[in-house]
Amino acid sequence: MNNALAHLQPYPFEKLRALLAGAEADRSKRPIALSIGEPKHKSPQFVAEALSANLDQLAVYPTTLGLPALRQAIATWCESRFNVPNGWLDAARHVLPVNGTREALFAFTQTVAQRDVGGLVVSPNPFYQIYEGAALLAGTQPHYLPCLEQNGFNPDFDAVPAQVWERCQILFICSPGNPTGALVPLETLKKLIALADEHDFVIAADECYSELYFDEDNPPPGLLTACAELGRSDFKRCVVFHSLSKRSNLPGLRSGFVAGDADILKAFLLYRTYHGCAMPVQTQLASIAAWQDEAHVRANRDLYREKFDAVLDILGGVLDVQRPDGGFYLWARTPGDDASFTRELFIKEHVTVVPGSYLSREVEGFNPGAGRVRMALVAPLAECIEAAERIRRFVETR
Q1: Is pTM beyond 0.70 here?
Q2: 47 inside domain
Q3: Burial bucket for residue 6 (CB in 10 Å: 0-12, 13-18, 19+)
């Protein structure tokens, strides 16, 4: 057995199941889950039609590199969305389709990280647990940067010691963040690129929530935006990860992409050729349809805006919680211990949330997620409103 497996921690939802084991919820109330970040809005019908219209492609072996038409659709979308000059993204060299960001983030780490017990994979804290597991199984060490309210729930990159950057092999950033919803500012992205050049590490930008934002006139920037403003047409040391799961409510399609540094993607393609992870042709053709349409994405944002407006109006003045920069999570401060809050809320109101401490790691006696819970506003509007009303009642009578 790979001895690194022994270092993997239970997934947050395993911890949550253990926390709620034996807890008897109020059976008079229907269960409402605000715990798992699984989009529940209706998937676009035209994508389903494209998928079913191409089921004859089940008889075709897909290539790992993917269809040229899909790579071009992705490159065109990136240029439009992130203000990348036309022609900078070569669809044949700078884009690679993947089976969702989760699989890609893990495999990418195995490709880029050099097996070195002194090597670091640096990530925000709290974080998406794949970053940590991928680092450990790649033979490196995870290193955590706390995301605190006083720094806008982003890491304080200026406070990171030079020796950490010198050992860093991959820097994971997540913008908008999971679970905080915080955006990494454009100027910070530019500073990180300069640090990557100085210390020779790769920036892996997890941007799977990038299309969930509130101001329709101001889409949030991404790492490709920073590259464009810096004139960095080779995207050196910069790689972004995107998915149709949140953008298009297609988590079951398992379709996304990686884009950026051509030399890194060439090595990643080699790894993936052995990894055996080619996207089925019918899925690729359906994905082209999704990437070429924005109307359904705008409608999706409208649904989330409505839910955030309603829930925040109910919880205002009861919980310390603010509208995030993006994503579909609320990162609320709890009165007291976050795990106790979660268990009691489940018992009394049959509402499930995730303790913030389960999404973070304690470093030097401090867990930046402690005292908070993550609420995923993925359920239908009526359920989100009912959950918010139950949470308000729970807090007021607790």
Answers
A1: yes
A2: no
A3: exposed
